[in-house]
Every structure is written in structure tokens, then in C-alpha cells.
Amino acid sequence: MTDSGSLAGSTTTAQSDVIRTDYFEITYEENERAEAEDIASYADEYYKLLFQRFGVAPVEGRVAVEVVASNTVECDGVQRAGCYKGVGSRIVLTSADRTVFFHELTHRFQDDAFSLAPGAITPEVVVEGTAQHITTPPEKIAKRASFDRDAIYFTDENADGDEYDELALFTEYVLHEYGREGYDVLYTNNHPRELESVVDEEYSTIIEDFYAQLDEQKARMQDGGASSPGFTYDPFLVERGSEVTFDARTPDAIEAIGRTWYNGEVESYEWDFDSDGEIDATGPTVTRTIEDPVDKTVTLYVTVDGERLEAAQTLLPAVAPKYSIQSVEEGTGTFDYSGSDSWGDIAAVPGQNLTVDVAVGNDGGVGGSETVELLFRGEVVDSTRVTVASGETRPVTLSHGLPDGLEAGNHRYQIQMGGVQSQEDVVYIVEKVTADLSPQYGGISVESSLKGGTNIETPVSTGTSTTVHVPAAITDPYGLSLPVEMKLYLDGELVGQKVTTISSSSVSEGFDITTPEDPGEYELRAVISDERDVLDGSTETTHTLVVQDKSRLDQPVVARCGPELRDYCSILIESVEAPETVEVGTEAEFDVNVRWKEDHIDSLPFSIEAGVGEQTEQIETEMNPDGTGQITVTETFEETGEYTVTVRGLVVHRVTVAEEVETAPEDSDSDGGGSDTDSLADGSTADDGSDRGTSSENRSEDADNSDSVSDLSTPGFGVITVVLSVVLAILILQRSR
């Protein structure tokens, strides 16, 4: 590749078949070098005035241009003098005709200005109509157009070259009726309905008004058409604090194609550089120091034949913000969706408010402000302007009220910001779904401290912590995962609430509650609700909670049993051998006598939770062959007070820990004394044969009925002594006779 030298109006380099300007890379076929050099001489001027005029950032890299030797080039199946190829973003030309070049360059400009979403429809009245209008004198358009409303369509149907003039009539009408503000909308948006954003009229009304004035428009365009004020400036990209020269006269490049920006006598040029409505300078050209070109708008007022026209253009900074859409997350109004009958990824319900949380960033070298828009089904439904510093990420929330009559199915939404668009997401609109809290999903269940496990018929003990389980599900054809709020009431009082997600598969939420202190029957009521108003059907369920006094010993408790402690067995508590009073700092043992609830005899090992107060542990032991056994709880008391001994949450004994415990006097009739008792859960004691305040008659009766035998090594009136005394008495009696 060798440098071909300098061409008029631009700096170029070439190697045999390539010429590069500041903004173009022009390749040419054999014998087309002269055409390519001609194009290179003016190409940059059209590029700069087009992007400056509409305030659109230049494309990245050079624009590709091909100059071919044939007389025509195929474009969408039609032979033409030039074509813009969207694939590869290149302009293909058969000659150096300025009008053709400018027309195709406008299409390349539209690629960046429109920021088209995949599948977006762009009517030919915008694509070809605007390109034809900016490059062709109004008189020529009027001469060739039929001004027949049936020849002017607003669809994306490909237009033939001889239809371009018909389509350009709408652009001319918008310029005449709405000035540069409406005119610029057509060149920077892919659909004419966007005119609604600057015109206080419905899109359909705009079209009908256009059709109604075609005859008047023909005469107007034959007389030169509407003026299109504007300006260029030098340098092309503005540095901070630099001097910039503004020129409101029709550029030479525009006059070279037979066009002008002003149809009539220009009487004055006025400039507003601060967007405050005040005139800061006058004249066709002015020089101004621009301190900060980012988001800088300059407004020009031009009076033509007594009519004051306005043109506001946003400057192109040399260092500009580079916006990005970093994340898009669905907020309220949507829920997860995994239905097999569609490819939507979230779901919503008609009439609800859809919110989208967006994170936008700026990777450019300077901060700036830009509008973030939410598009639903291709239309902007919400927007907000945000300022993002260089290197900063900002959160933005946009919302849209989904219409009540929106049909079920997939609907696309998208975020766009400063020419950058997110990938399209899909929201699947669904009808109401059925909630189910019915018993087929298990109903409310309660973990019982009396029996253990989870069973809806099991009573619970008073004043005990337990867990209430509430299963819930929805019946729907969509495969939804729906966020809901679940509340639990005990006799009308809210005792628990949490947010969970339910689906067609039952999910169970557990609520930790403390049971009432008084025995009785209480109503448990579970309620689910969703802010999206999606649910129909059963959204609440009730259950009668039976609360019993936890001191009752006739209730079975559950223990793990079996060789590997994997099974569950029910046991009954018979009695407790334990002291009623313990001295602080001493260790005490509490022996709980138990037996199998069922009528079977074996010596299976078992494990059960037992302890003093809140200090419980799993105690492993084994039943005797006769089906009875003993659980021993050992505790050293470091503080005085009242304590309870519990087995599986059931209070089986109460003990008082005191600073000092009085020792009872020894009694020769006692079995050795002591403070051990056989206690029941209510604190009463069983008779163990000691006197402990009982009458002599009772003691005598107990002695007569006793099956126990004293230790032979212990002095006293044992059985042998009694027998010997009786024998000796008989012998003495016989001798006395």
C-alpha cells in the first residue's frame, strides 16, 4: 500500500485500488480510479454536515464505499445506480454522482441514528422518503410525484426507485408543518409514529392531515418548498474550551446537488448558545468559545421572508460519553415463568404495573446526560433522563401499566439509551391462576411436643415452642413461580408472616410459635396474598389447634428406637424418682421410669430428648425385657430457683434449688431416710414405705403388706430374729407346764 498523495478537499492515501479519507475507505474496480478520487474529494463534507445537522455521533471506523465498473448494482433485487448494503455496512456506487452518494450515505447514517431493534419495522416513508428529500430539490420531487394518496404508503414494503419522490412528500409536509423539530424526528427515529412525542396529535391524525393537504403541497413544492434552517461548525468535533466557528449558510456541498436550506430572502440570523431564550450573537457566521460541548445545544433563529424559523442542534464533542446498558432486571409486577408452551422468561398479568430495574453506565471519557427509555411492543411507554459521570453506573427504574385487555401470549420489551439498546426480553401475559391451600396439599400441620412428628390431629402442650407448617401451591398451565405473602393467625392474632414463592409443586413454610398457656381449642388460619392480584381459588385455610396441659402423664411421647435408632416408638412415663429439693452446687439425679405404650415385651434400645430446663440432650438407653426402662437425667445446679425436668417437652418433675437443704432426723422405723420421692408430673409423691408424716396404722399396714426383705447383715427385727423368738417362747411355755 502506497500513499497516493493529497486530493482536493480531503487527505487521502491509496494503494492501487483503495483510497482512504478521514471518514471513508473507498475501494474501486479497474478503470474506476477517477470516479473513486472524485468521491473522495467531497465525501467527508457530506459526512460532517449530515452528522452535525442531526447531532448523531459519528460511526466507529471508516465507512466502506465500493466503486464498481457496471452501470447498475443489484439492491434488494432491483438494478440501481447505487445501494447501501446493510450486511457489511457498505455503500456500493456505479459513479461519482453526488446525489446518489449522499442518498446512500443517509442510509448508513440511519443505521446509527435509528439503533434498530431486531425485528423492528421501519416504513419506507422514513427510509427512502427522508433520504430522497434531503438530497433532491423540492421542485424536482414535485415534478415527478403524482401526489396520489394511494401511492404513498406507510409500510415496510420495499419501494421502487420511482416511488421515492412519492414517499418524500411526507418528509416535506412534516418540515412545513412542524419545522426542524418534527423533521429531525423522522431522521433519528425508525417510525413516523414517534412524531407524537413532539406533536400534540395522534399518529393517525397526522397521516390523515397529510393526505388532506396534498393538493396544496404540490403548489408549495413547485415554488421551492419549505425552508430547512441549520448550521455547520468547525471543528467537526468540539474540544472543551475551544473556539468554534458556526456557519448558518447553505453549505457548498448542498448547493452542489441543487439544494438550498432557505427558500426565500434571509433577513436575519440569531444565535442562542445558552438555551435560555436570549440572543447571544447575530449574523450568518459567529465564533464562540465552548467551555463544555457535552450535551450542548445551540439554537439558531433564521427569519426568511418575514417568518422566524428555529433550528436546535446538539454539538458533537471530541470526547463524548459512551453509554451502556449493563443489566436489565424485572422488578414488581412480574414473576418467574418456565412454561413449555412459550419461550417467555417472565410473566405478568393484564392491568398490573410492570417495573424494570436498569443499570446504565458510561465508559466514555466524559460525563453526560441521556434519556433512558422503556419500549413495550416497539413503543416507548416510559422514559427518564439520567446524568452519568465517566466510569459511573447508575440505577434507573422504569414502569408501564399493562393494559387490562392485553391478550395472553408473548410481548417484547426493551431498554434503549442514547442509541444503545438492550437485547429484547419477553414478558408472557397470563390470566389468573388458582391458588390451593386445601388438604390435598397436606393442610396445616403442627409439630407436637406431646407426641412428636408432624400430624394435624396431634394435640400440643401448653406454653411450648412448636412449628406450624403451611403447604401451598398454585394450579396453572404456565409453570409460574409466584411470589406471595403468607400470614398465620392464632385465634385472630397475627403470629407469623413471611414472603415465599409458590408454584404448581407444593411448598411448605414453617412458622415458629409458642402455644397458649391455657388448655383448649384454638383456630389456626393461614392466608396467602399476592400484590399482582393473580390468584383465584382457595387463598386461606384453617385448622383447630388442640392445646393440652403439658403436665399430663397419660400422653405418649415419641422416641427413636431399634438397633440403629432409625424407627419411632411411643413410650409412657410411669413415675419419677427424684428429689424435690436440691442444695445449690450439688449434683442430682432424676430417674424417670418408662414403659412401652404398646403391649409388647422386648429390650430394644431407644433415644429420647430429656433434660432440666432448656438444657436438654439426647439420652440413649434400653428397655428391660419386660418392656420397662429408666431414663436418668443428671444435673449440677449452680443457681437457686425452680427448675423443671422434661422428657420430649413434657414436664415430668419440678425441683427447688436452695442455698441450704435441711436434713430430716433419722427414724428407726424408716428405710434409712432421705429425700428421694416417686413424683408425678403435678408435683405429688407416691408412698415408698417411709413414715413421712403418715399414721402408725398406715405404717403397720404397709409393713404387713411389704414383700421386701431386709439385709441379713443388718441388726434389728428381721425375719430370722422373729422366727427364733417364736420358737424360744414355745419351748419356755412347754417347760413351765
How would you characterize the overall build of this protein?
There is one protein chain. The chain is of the alpha+beta class and 737 residues long. The protein folds into 6 domains: 9-115, Zincin-like; 116-226, no CATH class; 232-314, Immunoglobulin-like (Sandwich), CATH 2.60.40; 323-429, Immunoglobulin-like (Sandwich), CATH 2.60.40.10; 433-548, Immunoglobulin-like (Sandwich); 557-699, Immunoglobulin-like (Sandwich), CATH 2.60.40. Helix content is 18%, strand content 39%. The protein has 10 helices and 48 strands. The strands form 9 sheets. Strands 19, 20, 22, 23, 25, 26, 27, 30, 32, 33, 35 and 37 form a 12-stranded mixed β-sheet that branches. Helix 1 packs across helix 2, helix 2 (98-114) packs across helix 3 and helix 4 (138-144) packs across helix 7 (214-222). The radius of gyration is 48 Å and the shape is elongated. The termini are far apart.
